[in-house]
DNA sequence: ACGTCGTTCTCCAACGATGAAGAACACAGT
DNA sequence: ACTGTGTTCTTCATCGTTGGAGAACGACGT
């Protein structure tokens, strides 16, 4: 016998297979002596349950999918760690599906669950947009959305304070005296999405102080929010000859790229130019100088997303029928001041 | 009918379920007209095969495990991306198991495969050591080891040129005139592992030029190779008052932390101190200044590890019996020169 | 004495696919 | 006409577990 089955355990303990199953799944009406015999048999045979058979019979795999663009990007790597940690606490496994910032990758991730084994999906879209929203509704498995790329009133959604975060970042710069603040990370293509919302926060903060947006201060990064593009966008802004005394970057990678470019040009941070990022990835703490940034509440996002998904899974399980309406959860945001901005006076 | 089964397709196409199965799995003896009818029925019903049932019957899940310490660390995040990409090309799914640098996490990862669904495991140990090697032998599933934490002649293993890499890094510094080269990332605890090997490369390079290792130049980072510890270790070295004109850090995060500390102390890189890292994570390209580092061949490592694992899985599948002896593959290494070191003369 | 109830356990039939074996048929060679 | 061979498809059992139904038993109230 290569690997023992429940029937083997049952035979050894002198009970039926179903009793073994009952013992293992915590069914209460088992005589103590029986339970002990069964557990002893399990031990002696080194029995471990066959998960596949259990899934086939019960219809639940205890596996959820996490579709994110790329783990190499620290924001998503760290987010994935948080989701995995939360999942471990709840005894769930996570299948990560990197979508590579491509439409095909994201469509594939949406199709996978039916074909693969996952019970539900946490999905952070980057390439799909609002016009694809119908793809996310009426899926035959529970879905939790992350980010601000696509919104639907039919799907649970966890997101962050984008406008408020960018506004707080910009206000900090204004408070320390900056008046020529560049925005790094503008996107042409999208009408929604983090770029638009963060730009909105930037604009609102300026306008509250009676300042207008100067197009020459907008740094475009249509190829993605990587460091390289942050450097490029910063260079483009500086090359217009416009005066710059502050930078709001729409994520930390852009900010670090921009700081790189500022350094190359011999500008001192924060003396000549103050810089604020967005995301609070681990790098931000150890750059030179360390980066002031917005902590968007990553841990909260991971935790809430998983909880929402598991709650939906329970709803499917118990046909008691009280289907909750979809939730939109916005995580708490926090400004983290470090060395790339001067102290507030 | 919520979700159609093979029997439904069969009924619709007027054939038996087994014929549907045969069509879908590419069995050759099917009349063309039958094949078409079946595929039409599949289309019409939107049928997708139930993976769980297939696994139960066939015994293979097409899922492999990847056990790494933490995705938030760019090296592992990027490694995971490479493994996932390679897996996608081969139509395999990957279940990532973060072990959190803990012994318990790693032991759990080793136990999981039996309980969970994976056919095999790619394992990058960080907390287990050579004394645990017996845990890795005689597992009842195929295993591929990564890294240099544990070695076994019974297990396939993919690793990198640690000694040669650290030696190349140190030689570069010597070539550009450094003579007081700090080594950042020393560990007390381990007798094997990357730290020891990279230190060995450092020492060999020095000794080849007739230089001795100066204990004051050794920066310890027993709490892990994070940026924070790189900064701390660098600070400790500088605080001894010893003169430093070069730094070999045992990974990029340590190097970036060390650069941070050097910056804080007003030392210019590379003018006052030249710095070399190890790993070539994406950050290294965009730090200020950009970091000279060793590319250990991450993509090759991911690819070869997956291939070795899949090859073992095939061996299990076909009892033809020619079990290949375990392989030790060492990936190609490459020195990437950037701004943190002066040009070689 | 009898029905009711709670406890403890068993039996059977699924879940949905596939491997093994073989039936039915056509066609060729003798 | 008969056997052999190749093609095409079917039947049946099976992977290992769990849901549903209910059997067996004792205790309890009436």
Automatic annotation (TrEMBL), chains A, B:
Say yes or no: keyword Iron-sulfur present: no
Output this protein's name: LacI family transcriptional regulator
Q: Which PROSITE patterns match?
A: HTH_LACI_1, HTH_LACI_2
* Coiled-coil ranges per UniProt: none
Supply one GO molecular-function term: DNA-binding transcription factor activity
- This protein's superkingdom? Bacteria
Keywords recorded for this protein, A-Z = DNA-binding, Transcription, Transcription regulation
Which CDD domains does the entry mention? Answer: HTH_LacI, PBP1_LacI_sugar_binding-like
Q: Which residue ranges does the record assign to the HTH lacI-type domain?
A: 4-58
